[in-house]
Amino acid sequence: MAAARLRDLISQQGRIIVCPGVYDGLTARIALRDGFDCLYMTGAGTSLSRLGMPDLGLATMNDMLANAGMIASLDRRVPLIADADTGYGGPVMVARTVKAYIAAGVAGLHLEDQVLAKRCGHLLGKEIVPADVFLSRIRAAVIARDEMRAVVGAAAGDIVLIARTDALQAEGFDAAVARLRSAVDAGADVAFLEGLTSLEQGRRVCALLAPTPVLLNMVPGGVTPDISAEEAREAGFRLVIHPGVLLSAVFEAGVAASRELRDTGRVRTLVREGKAVGPRELFEVAGLAECLALDKMAGGQAYEGGV
Ligand SMILES: C[C@](O)(C(=O)O)[C@H](CC(=O)O)C(=O)O
């Protein structure tokens, strides 16, 4: 199951797991086709694509859960790490969130120490909750995981808990590392120092928290300098998420295409590898062939004549 697979991946010393950020069915399918070992569901992308709103704590648990469950269902062999923001409330709510993510097939999630009216970690003016409130979120997550493991078994129930701190901006490096250390002591599996501003900080947090795996968040145009997967691996990181990889690409291409239609009254046919891209080619990335095969295997005749 996906949670066990993710645990196996993060236990491999000296290896870096590169997770593309996805936020809907199409972006998830694109990344799955490219064979990544693990996907990341971005909350920012979920908020933008499902609500048409910025990453300001507006997506509810149900918005996030529905998106994560759909993405996790596309290929159960590939683990999905999903953003769980603050856990969406007090300890009881955090526990509900963790249980719901496990039941939806999510393999890992991250919980942070921002106030409920949170914002993207790369924006200014972040406010964080006291360290003991953050710890109560992590403890609630650990309790929920233990309860679910007893019910659904370790392979699915042993969701990877990633503790994220946003304390670097307001309280500095040492306070942020102290928060991560207590979260790990409380049962978190992975540490995530949000918004680090240099590779050197990355090296230090990995060394200080070793052997706990540490996650790097690479946000294009954010506060963290550009760090390659190899540089991150060498610095000691075990995971790197790229929340914006598909979001930025879709934004850029979408803006250009929309303007072109507005200005010329036409839409150009996309050509890839010398072939026009029509609906069939788009549906192929989303499992068209598998759907037709299943229908046939079950004795359905709807697509006998082809599509
Ligand atoms: C990782 C993150 O929580 C996300 O929603 O993907 C965001 C990224 C972003 O806003 O681009 C973050 O707070 O860093």
TrEMBL record:
Q: Which SUPFAM superfamilies match?
A: Phosphoenolpyruvate/pyruvate domain
Reaction(s) catalysed by this chain, per the record, are: (2S,3R)-3-hydroxybutane-1,2,3-tricarboxylate = pyruvate + succinate
| Keyword set, alphabetical order | Kinase, Pyruvate, Transferase
User: A Pfam family matched by this chain, by name?
Assistant: PEP_mutase
By its UniProt entry, which InterPro entries does this protein fall under? ICL/PEPM, Isocitrate_lyase_ph_CS, Pyrv/PenolPyrv_kinase-like_dom, Pyrv_kinase-like_dom_sf
GO molecular function, a single term: methylisocitrate lyase activity
Which residue ranges traverse the bilayer?
none
Tell me yes or no: is Transferase among this UniProt entry's keywords.
yes
Q: State the PROSITE patterns in the record.
A: ISOCITRATE_LYASE
Protein name (record)? Pyruvate/Phosphoenolpyruvate kinase-like domain-containing protein
Q: Provide the species name.
A: Podospora appendiculata
